[in-house]
Amino acid sequence: MKTAVLVMAYGSPTTLDDVKAYYTDIRRGRPPSAEALADLTGRYRSIGGTSQLTDITHAQAGALEHLLEEVAPDSYNVYVGMKHWHPYIAEGVANIVADGLEDVVGLVLAPHFSSKSIGEYQTKVETAGHEVNLHMVSSWYDEPGFIALVASNIAASIEGWHDHRVFFTAHSLPQRILEEGDPYADQLKESAELIAKEADIDDWEVAWQSASHTGEPWIGPDILERLDAFRSEGGERALIAPIGFVSDHLEILYDVDIECVERAAQLGLDLRRINSPNDDPRFIQALANVVLRSSPSR
Question: End-to-end CA distance of the chain, in Å?
Answer without folding.
Answer: 14
